[in-house]
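Your task:
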Amino acid sequence: MQKTMGWLRSIAKNGYLPSIILWGGILFLVFSSLQTFFSAITPKGIGLTTDSVAYIWSAENLQNGLGLGRLTGSGAFKPMTHWPPLYSILIALIGKPGIDNYEVAKYIGAVLLALYILLLVIVTGKVSSSPIAVIGGAILLASPITWIVFLYALSEPLYLVLMLGGLLAFLRFLSLKRKIWLILSAFIVSLSIVTRYVGVAMLAAFILAFWLYDLKAWKCKLKDSILFLAISILPLALWLAYNQFAFHNATNRSLLYNPIPPADYSQLLETIKLMVKPITGFFDVGMRKVILSVAFLAWGGYLYLDAKRGKPVAETPYESSPVRFLIIFNIIHVCLYSVMVVISRLYFDPMIDIFRERIIYPAYLSLFILLVWCAGYLWRVTIRKGWFTTALSAILFAFLCVSFYQGFNQDTSYLVKKSIKDGIGIAAMRTDTHPIVKVFQGLPPSDLVYSDNIEVLYLLTGYPSYQLTDTSLDNFSLLVKQNAHKRTYYVIFRTRAFTKNVLELFPNIRLLYSAEDGKILEQFE
């Protein structure tokens, strides 16, 4: 026993114990999260939205030599200029023609999840102690909002990994003062911008935080800022220039004011409720809270005794330039990201659902890093005050940590079970036995196909179509006249009342298939 305690004291004295906690915690979180990830998506496939299908569809066309984009109902190529290209390019590079790219997206998602955990705990460990960073990582990974993002084939997980990677490289630059880390950070940030255009907010946060964390040496900062900006913006500039030159359309977005309807704000309230819901279980006492309280108390007592012997507890938050930068960066990033998302929704893309979890998540991540820093700072302060404050803060922290972990885990378990049973998003529709697939296989060849959801139609049948963006009867009447001498199919997934009106008003249109999951109409000559 004495040898064991002596070995542990030797490890702690030489600084190995924090590293063991950090890397042991990372490995545990990686393996447990990957097990959850694969169990959730293996039965029905990775979660899909219409954006997911658009990304994968574009990747398939790139693999087949058509370019990054999709086919229209007449077989014409339509380039993908509305979104940045990196996520689709990554799928295309890893997959091959003939391989199911939905499977490729699944394994890309698993790798991104593992990298996210690794970088998250390391970055939060920079602003707190190793145990708090690991506990914080566990709480964030228990959050259903995290899984809503990572269980889908979307560009957000790649963006989050690049955000944390860019941060970590920049922190190394501030610590070591070596330009190679600045260049690496700028390169990673450049990739984030061609993953999501809102990465421009991250770039601005880097530049502003770099100037504000230390107001000295402005001449050196000016050179470094110019270098960082030039490298970061280059891929985006090349992408936009290529789109403009090749397709005469840089981003396929137009400047037009689109007010946010009041109904959308109810989604914001639901998302906020999901974030803070576990606080309601704070006063529920359980064995996990007792065990963690004792562990925190023992740890705090150990640090308190070290402080009494003259050993410093830890550096204060502003003694370290990297920590100071990280705090300032995340404060600025929350503000700039939120402003840019709102502006994008108001003036460039009315289809952005800005209050959904996946859109809010990058700001949620920055807020979480700040909360971990606050927790670490309060812990360092309270354990200097004496045994009573150490015990009180240990109980408070333990109750908060366990309440949020357990509360989040309940909602996450429900999401995972739903994914296992039915699939999430439109992944549940992806099966060869789906009725729409059978109907399409038995239809005569058509000249044109229109759909109010071209991504779902392609997912189910592999059939390209034209987007039926306006389902008003006036617009539909024009389509009917234009296609008077052609066999045309209309596949409707969302607007059911519209289908009923069409059948009543147009005698040359008949119903071929009708169910809760969609309808198929045929216009005959």
User: Anything to note?
Assistant: The chain has a mean pLDDT of 86. Strands lie at 69-71, 77-79, 448-451, 466-467, 488-492, 509-515, 518-523.
